[in-house]
Amino acid sequence: MSSRQDGNRDEKRDEAAVARFVERFAAELTAAGMQRMAARVFSALLASDAGSMTAAELAETLSISPAAVSGAVRYLTQTGMIGREREPGTRRDRYRLYDDVMATALTRRDQLLVRWEKQLREGADALGPHTPAGTRMTETADLFAFMQQELEETLLRWQERRAGARADD
Amino acid sequence: MSSRQDGNRDEKRDEAAVARFVERFAAELTAAGMQRMAARVFSALLASDAGSMTAAELAETLSISPAAVSGAVRYLTQTGMIGREREPGTRRDRYRLYDDVMATALTRRDQLLVRWEKQLREGADALGPHTPAGTRMTETADLFAFMQQELEETLLRWQERRAGARADD
DNA sequence: CGCTTCTTTCAGAATTTTGTGAACACTCAG
DNA sequence: CTGAGTGTTCACAAAATTCTGAAAGAAGCG
């Protein structure tokens, strides 16, 4: 038997399985706060062999309008998760997943921590640094500062590891 | 001058400053995906000296209905960010921020990584582990596995540091 | 028990978000 | 220039979300 349980050892893509993955993974991303269409486009790209698709292909596979593709693609481009490239000799754009998308997305996380830390310190100052609330907020700000540092180091370690793995190829 | 710029060195809370902080911080949390009312309640608790408030106080300071408080509080309780406690001798509940809320919230992040990794591995298997898409997804899953490990260690280091700081008191 | 005080639930109004269709804009090929 | 092939914008319809008031539900207190 070569059913879906034991994976795909054939050459051709099981489009139904792809669609299932795309929808499930997109749902996770949506739950985590990403816009629905952006999440679906992103997932579709992730599951594409080329790592890139045209707007038409996206509209087709996801059953959405060109307008929806446009919106999703704008979001993903602005947030630096995908790039747009033009196929030479044609008018068609391809939208391509950047390498290490997830790793760079996590870097952006870092910026969130910076902002939160800043606001907490301002808050602590406004409330009075020696009040109970002020103290609590300072401690929380310290945690965020710590996380920034650690996240940075973690990403460096990941880069090293990736570099090592690539050297083995 | 003792304006708001240079912090509050007086005893009494500058309620206007508190309100500003609450709204700003809540806005950040909302942008990061938290429900609006939950974010406001959470921020208000964070800025409260006692680290806890009654439903009535929350409704009052945030200008929202008891129903809204109820909803927000349910969400925060379910996600384990606050606890409910009854004031002895009264019928009033107090909602209290857990210690190290943020640190434990980050622990929950970890569960997200677990789920995402799992889905990616399933996806890679469904698409065929040796296809380009399958390979990409496996690599991404590896990143998430790595992040889980690192996040865990980071939180341990934070606990240690906290323990050390508390011992100094 | 019943009253009083709080909390929760629920239906609905208001708002916001989302996705579409259609018009518009851009770009290259001839 | 013109026209075909693509991408984007915008107004609107549909759907989801959010918050409220009102009513119902607990839980202590006399």
Question: What does this molecule look like?
Answer:
Chains A, B: Keywords: DNA-binding, Transcription, Transcription regulation. Chains A, B: Residues 33-92 form the HTH marR-type domain. Chains A, B: InterPro entries: HTH-GbsR_regulator, HTH_MarR-typ, WH-like_DNA-bd_sf, WH_DNA-bd_sf. Chains A, B: This is MarR family transcriptional regulator. Chains A, B: One of its GO terms (molecular function) is DNA binding. Chain A is mostly helical and 169 residues long. Chain A has two domains: 4-97, Arc Repressor Mutant, subunit A (Orthogonal Bundle), CATH 1.10.10.10; 101-167. Chain A has helices spanning 15-31, 36-46, 55-62, 66-78, 101-127, 132-167, and strands at 52-54, 82-86, 93-97. Chain A has a three-stranded antiparallel beta sheet. Chain A is elongated and about 65 Å long. The first copy, chain A, starts with 14 loop residues before the first helix and ends with a helix. The mean pLDDT of chain A is 90. At the A-B interface, helix 1, helix 5 and helix 6 of A face helix 1, helix 5 and helix 6 of B. Chain B binds a DNA duplex (30 and 30 nucleotides) through residues 35-37, 54-56, 64-71, 73-74, 89-93.
Provide a quick synopsis of the model.
Chains A, B: GO terms for molecular function: DNA binding; DNA-binding transcription factor activity. Two copies of one chain form a homodimer. Helix content of chain A is 66%, strand content 8%.
